[in-house]
Amino acid sequence: MMEVAEPMKVEVPRLSDLLTRDPYLTKYEKEIRRRYGCFKKLVDQIDQAEGGMEKFSRGYETFGLHVNPDNSVTCVEWAPMAQGLFLKGDFNGWNKLSHPFKKLEYGKWEISLPANPDGSCPIKHTSRVKISLLTPKDMMVDRLCPWASYVVQPPKTEGLAYHHHFWNPPPEESMKHFYIEFITEVLVQTSSS
C-alpha cells in the first residue's frame, strides 16, 4: 500500500467545494487528502513508466499474445510478484518449462516465439494456451492471460477453469471491417441508382 508522508499538505483540486457541499466529509479530510496523494503517486508512476495514462489504457495493444507480421508470436504479461512465467499449450505439448518468459522492468515479462520454418504461426488458431506462474512461495500455478481475446467455458467434466484459445484466424475467415465495407457498398449502390 502506498503511503503519503504528510496528507494535510496534499493539494486536492476543489476539495473546499466538496467539503462545503457535504460538511459531513470534513472529519474525513485527512483521509481524502491521503488517498488523493496515493492516487497522484500512482499516476506519476504510470506517466514515468508507461508514457502516460493514454498509452497505459491501451495496454491491450502491447500485452497478451500478438502475431507479428512475420508470423512470430510475442507475448507480454504483467506479473510483478512472479518469480518466473512460462507459456504452455497445445503448441508445445503442455510442457510447463520449455518456454520461459524473460523478466523486464516494472513487473513485465516477455516471450517471443519464432515463426515455424515454413513461415506459419507457431501457435495454431483456436489451440489452447495457458501461462504457468511461479509464485514467491515457489508454487507453480496456471493462469489465463488477462488480455486473452477468446476464452471458453470448459465442459463440466473438465472442471471450472476457463480455457484460453489462441485467436488468429486465417485472412479468408477474418471478419475485419465487414460492417464498414458493407455500408460503403450499400451507399455506393444507393448513390448510383
Automatic annotation (TrEMBL):
CDD domains linked: E_set_GBE_euk_N
Domain of life where this protein originates: Eukaryota
Pfam families, sorted: CBM_48
GO-annotated cellular components: cytoplasm
GO molecular function: 1,4-alpha-glucan branching enzyme activity; hydrolase activity, hydrolyzing O-glycosyl compounds
Biological-process GO terms, alphabetical: glycogen biosynthetic process
Protein's recorded name: Glycoside hydrolase family 13 N-terminal domain-containing protein
InterPro entries (UniProt xref): Glyco_hydro_13_N (IPR004193), Ig-like_fold (IPR013783), Ig_E-set (IPR014756)
Boundaries of every Glycoside hydrolase family 13 N-terminal domain copy: 63-148
